[in-house]
Design goal:
single chain, about 200 residues, mainly beta, 2 helices
Length: about 200
């Protein structure tokens, strides 16, 4: 379960994405947020949220972030910014592809052992409808459990490859419709309002 606090944050998520995304190899300026989805950290310590944005050039991009209450040791190259949160205090925002908790959780989702988190707004009893709905193609029964201390990431203009404990996950930064998913055993796809077909988000290489 993901609890959404009624809070003031500085910078806003739109502001931090506008500042950081164009500096990345796969990034572009002129962003508009299409939607987002969340995963649960089993230990309840790390917030995991993935944004889908459309650029001024018409490209769809995927940006997973992790939110932490303290710096992640050894992850300075993945630090996006710090955020002041009126409820939780200072938060350290990371490109999730360099965060071992994200690697573990994404592996669980891809293998079908975990799913998208239900989103609850503080003070509301029922979950809200997520703006992006994701589906795992994990049906092989493979038990993917990456080493939680050894994560690396490599970028190009359209993907980020996350390697953790012998597991290789390809995260699609520039999104295309699901067609390519048939070539992979374990996949994650997403849909949102205005998109008639699923988009491939990630797969195990």
């Amino acid at each position: 379960m993901a609890l959404i606090h009624r809070a003031t944050i500085r910078p806003t998520k739109a502001e931090l994405l506008d500042e950081w995304v164009p500096t990345q190899p796969w990034g572009e300026p002129g962003l508009e947020i299409v939607g987002a989805f969340r995963f649960d950290d089993p230990d309840g310590e790390v917030g995991i949220e993935t944004h889908v944005v459309v650029t001024a050039g018409g490209h769809l991009l995927q940006i997973p972030l992790t939110y932490r209450g303290a710096p992640l040791v050894g992850a300075d190259p993945f630090l996006v910014c710090t955020m002041e949160h009126s409820v939780l205090g200072r938060r350290w925002i990371y490109d999730a592809t360099g965060d071992p908790v994200y690697a573990q959780v994404l592996a669980s989702v891809l293998s079908g052992r975990a799913a998208q988190a239900d989103e609850y707004v503080e003070g509301v009893d029922a979950p809200r409808e997520p703006s992006v709905r994701v589906t795992s193609g994990g049906t092989s029964g493979r038990d993917l459990r990456p080493d939680d201390t050894d994560v690396s990431a490599a970028w190009d203009a359209s993907t980020t490859v996350v390697e953790a404990g012998g597991l290789r996950i390809v995260l699609c930064r520039r999104l295309a419709v699901q067609g390519a998913a048939a070539a992979h055993e374990l996949t994650l796809t997403g849909t949102w309002s205005g998109g008639s077909e699923p988009f491939l988000l990630a797969y195990v290489a």
